[in-house]
């Protein structure tokens, strides 16, 4: 196995949403004496039924989740803020007291602070979006798990 393939596989395993792991960790007991073969058949049929009823494919959700790159951190906001501030400060400094250099320095300092605030705001927005996506994925997986469990219970299994 190639090292890259191994790492991708490892990342996929690590990136599986907790709901999928939870769905796979259901304890299924054959309460009516079903054989192991019958239980495997019923699990397969209930998997198909739950996908049809809910429109949720937990494997596809896990792959989609694993394929999404982590959100990129905003870059350069402080530098851009410093440049904007320096330019504005130079103009204001020249107009106010004929000292463009001092105005540029002050503007750059203010721009760094403003750029940092913009960068934090963008990072918070990205984090909020990611949390909303995770919540939607979890809701979908919970819906699938309820359908899968209902199917197996209807076939005489106890689910925990």
Quick structural summary:
The chain is mostly helical.
Structure description:
With 160 residues, this protein is mostly helical. The protein is 78% helix and 4% strand. It has 6 helices and 2 strands. A two-stranded antiparallel sheet has the order 1-2. Residues 4-22 have low confidence and may be disordered.
Number of helices: 6
Main sheet? 2 strands, antiparallel
Mean pLDDT: 74
Residue fraction in strands: under 5%
Give unreliable regions as ranges. 4-22
End-to-end Cα distance, whole Å, is 37 Å
Cross-sheet strand order for the largest sheet: 1-2
- Structure class: mainly alpha
CA-based gyration radius: 28 Å
Q: Helix and strand succession?
A: HHEHHHHE
Helix content: over 70%
Layout of SSEs?
Elements: H1 3-15, H2 18-24, E1 28-30, H3 36-54, H4 58-67, H5 77-97, H6 100-154, E2 157-159
Antiparallel strand pairs: 1-2
Helix pairs in contact: 1-4, 2-6, 3-6, 5-6
């Amino acid at each position: 196995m190639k090292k890259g393939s191994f790492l991708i596989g490892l990342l996929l395993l690590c990136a599986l949403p907790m709901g999928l792991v939870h769905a796979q960790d259901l304890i299924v007991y054959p309460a009516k004496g079903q054989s192991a073969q019958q239980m495997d058949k019923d699990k397969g049929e209930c998997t198909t039924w739950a996908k049809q009823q809910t429109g949720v494919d937990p494997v596809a959700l896990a792959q989609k989740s694993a394929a999404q790159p982590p959100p990129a951190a905003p870059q350069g906001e402080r530098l851009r803020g410093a440049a904007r501030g320096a330019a504005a400060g130079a103009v204001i400094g020249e107009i106010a007291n004929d000292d463009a250099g001092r105005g540029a320095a002050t503007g750059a300092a203010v721009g760094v602070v403003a750029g940092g605030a913009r960068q934090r705001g963008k990072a918070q927005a990205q984090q909020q979006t990611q949390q909303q996506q995770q919540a939607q994925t979890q809701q979908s997986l919970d819906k699938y798990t309820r359908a899968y469990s209902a199917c197996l219970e209807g076939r005489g299994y106890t689910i925990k």
